[in-house]
Structures are given as structure tokens and as C-alpha cells.
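Trying the structure run again after the queue cleared.
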Amino acid sequence: MTIAPAEPRVAEPHVAAARSTVFDAAIVGAGIVGLATAWRLICRNPGWRIAILEKEDHVAAHQTGHNSGVLHSGIYYKPGSLKANNCRRGLKMMVEFCREHSIPHDLCGKVIVATRDSELPALEKVHEKGVANGVRCRMISPEELREFEPNASGVRAIHVEDTGIVDYPAVCRKLAELIAAADGAIRTGARVLSMRRENGSVHLQTPAGEIAARRVINCGGLQSDRVTKLSGVQPDVRIVPFRGEYYVLRPEARSLVCNLIYPVPDPRYPFLGVHFTRMIDGEVECGPNAVLALAREGYTWGDINLRDLGATFSTPGFWRFASKHWRTAASEIWRSMSKAAFLRSLQQLVPSIKAEDIQRAGSGVRAQAMLPTGDLLDDFSITTAEGVVNVCNAPSPAATASLSIGETIAEHVEAMSR
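Done. C-alpha cells:
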């Protein structure tokens, strides 16, 4: 999970006037997955009229708008999984899109560093997955590591050529512009309150009125399970929000990191651990941790939503998860509260970093799907109902994979039309 310290606002496109009362497709959620899906549907089906319904007053308001912009390679994911396949294809599609539309990006590469011998077996497994997924990566020695990252320390590492950075808000602005130019309607302040099926269409009620569409795609992100329920389907998973908090390097300390430095991930969790990320604007993020958010859109400890907390605590499997991982949860909370604890995690990768080199930045919330067993669903999950496609789980690397996910969703939507 990579989250930027700021919350960039994405400019709104002109909303096209409706020519008919029924859209060919309506998409719930104007994050990068929703926007990419709309664009792929338009590309594959010229003449289709698309509506995008976003509950906030601007697009890319939550997970996408807090993304630090990593172009993921696919090295971590199980070969053959939806994550692996969509990440690899999506990376190529995203780079081509950025080149075509002059969007800032840089395939700068990254290193995944084992800081002690006990991490070497896990590092080898990551490398094996990368090779199986066709990722350009290789094991490197401590001496080679210092060639890429002079201030990093480790007993061995993987250099990943295919990783990069990009300006995802700029990607969203361009997608919104292209959708508007194709007569797509992007409606903000349009929270979906209910759905009903009538005369072969799905009718969606919003505070701004009702729209009807022949097909509906739920790309609701942090609210995706709730939107799934509105479609008449009881989701197999529940969204549990995890907040990731960041520090950034002060400008005078940015030279400590050349590109991206990651630890060996803990295979028990879908999170990649505290790491360093050079962003496209030159800033360097440090983090994130992973703590339970007290609201689905809760970016600080003071953001509390009782409805969201009740949903989390009543989630089948939550207490199993909590009882199994309470020690890790406690350490993550301590790292949230203590700058010194956060710093010690960073020093495992870059020993020379000091307290005065870092300052607190922003945070973001990851929509993590939890199974009734208490396990965290680590793969993409897309299900269909009558006239509705529900994207039930689209975790990182969803931004990297968004154009590919959009293509996959488009195929599901078109299959419903046959």
C-alpha cells in the first residue's frame, strides 16, 4: 500500500447533457479503477453512453487520491492469480497510456532488501515468483545493492527493473478528460442510495435524482461491500479499513534514497512493510505502517465513524483475525504513536537516517476485504449479479493494474449483454 501525504484534488470534467433516460452502463465510484473501466468500455464499445457516479465532490478522492504513485512489477503475487496477470498487463498498458498522453512517469527500478539471514528464504520465494511472472529481476550482493542504493544495508537483495513511479492524479485527470470528450457523464455528489431492477434496466437513486442503466459496475472501493448489498447480493467478504501513515524525508535528506527501497514482506499479510518511495515530484515517502482505521474514510485517529466501527466489529472473522495477530497490531499502533519506533523500522533499511531527517506526513486508508475465516483476501475479486458487476476487492496494485482490470471488467459487462 502506497499513500501520498497530500490529498490532491482532481479537476472535474464537463458533464455531458443526457440524450436519453437510460445509459448503456453506469459505474459507481470515480477512483482510478472506475475511471479506467469507463474508458475501456468506451474504447471497446463506441457509441455507448456511460455515467460515473461519485459520492464525493471530486474524482479520485480516497484510495487513488492518496496514492504515492508506484508502478508495481508483479513480483510478489502468486503466478496465474488475477493480481499477477492484471499487474503485468496493466503495467504495460499504464506505461503506454502515460507515453501517449505525456504523463510523468519513470521506470526507475527498486530493491527488495533482506536485512538479516533469516529473511533469505522469503527473499528467494519472492524472486521465484517474480521470475515465474516474467518480471525483470535478479538477486544481487550487498556490494551491488550499494551501487543502486549507497545508503541501504542488507545481506542480500533483489533488483527489480520493472518497478517505477507515476503521477496517478494526472492519469485520472486525463481519463476524466477522455471520458467527457466521448460524451460520458461524471456526476459528483451522487452517492448511490438504492438500486432496483425495472424493465430490463437498473435504477440507481442518488441525492441528485435517479438514473437508469442497462448495466451497472460497482467500483466503490472502501464502500464496495455496501454497494454490493444494494445490488441484492450478500458479499462473501467485508471491507475492513486499514490506515497507513507516512513520514517524508526533509528536502536536505532526500539524497539518502535514490529510488525505492523495500523490505522482505511478511507472507502472512498483504502489506509490504515500511519502505522508502521516491515520488514523481522528488519527495521521498517513508512508510507506511498498518493500523485499523476507526472509519472507512478515517485518515487520523480522530476520525471515528460509529457505523463503520460497528461494521468492522461485527464482521465475521474479525475477532479471529484480531486474536491471531494482536501482537503485530499492538506493535503497529505503537509505531503510529512513536516517532522513535517508526524511525527504528526505517533504520533497518537505511541505518544512517536520523530523527531530524524525517517529518510526519499524511495517510491513507486501504480497503481490505476480510473473509469469514478472518483471513485477508489478497487477490482481486469480481462477481456478477443480474445486470451488475461487483468489484468486491481491488487492493494494491489496483492503480498499476487499473487499465487491465478495466478491460477484464468490460469483458464481464459485455458477457451480460450476450
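The longest strand covers residues 358-370. Worth checking whether this holds up in the mutant runs.
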